[in-house]
Design goal:
Strand order of the largest sheet: 1-2-3-4
Distance between the termini: 45 Å
Radius of gyration: 26 Å
Structural class: alpha+beta
Helix content: 25-40%
Largest sheet: 4 strands, antiparallel
Number of helices: 4
Shape: elongated
Length: about 150
């Protein structure tokens, strides 16, 4: 079994002909700064602009869920005209988009605000307007809609 080689010390580097000139020091500092700056950038899937407006509405959605152990599953931004035409929920003209928040937990009948009192299940979807942050409607069921099959947060 081979023993690992010790890290190069400053004395060994000098004996090998490496000298710390100002240009080399500046190059090392610039490389370290670039590496540090690259590591601090927010990844694109988290801050891609598609759902950022909805994160202001997250507290409203969490307040509708009355289960402290419920876990946030994701968020989708949906055009208001789609909500009005497909779900028959009226949205104010000033609200052009609705945020749909998905949660996983153990939701009993009447445990989620704005959901029918007879619905229960492991998943809840809460609709909140993106501009006025108004709770529109909630749904509780056995599975999530297909749009929530990917994690967004």
């Amino acid at each position: 079994m081979r023993r690992p080689r010790p890290a190069a010390s400053a004395g060994r580097l000098r004996r090998a002909g490496w000298r710390a000139t100002p240009s080399k020091v500046v190059a090392v500092i610039c490389a370290a700064a670039a590496l540090g700056a690259g590591c601090s950038v927010t990844p694109a899937p988290i801050n891609n602009g598609a759902v950022s407006a909805c994160f202001r509405a997250l507290p409203t959605a969490k307040a509708a869920i009355h289960d402290s152990k419920a876990r946030f599953q994701g968020v989708q931004r949906i055009p208001a005209d789609y909500v009005e035409s497909r779900l028959h929920i009226s949205v104010l003209p000033t609200d052009t988009e609705v945020c749909a928040f998905a949660f996983r937990g153990s939701f009993g009948a009447g445990q989620v605000s704005a959901a029918p009192s007879t619905e229960s299940g492991p998943y809840a979807v809460v609709l909140v307007t993106s501009r006025r942050l108004r709770l529109l409607r909630s749904f509780v069921g056995a599975r999530l809609p297909s749009r929530f099959s990917h994690r967004y947060a």
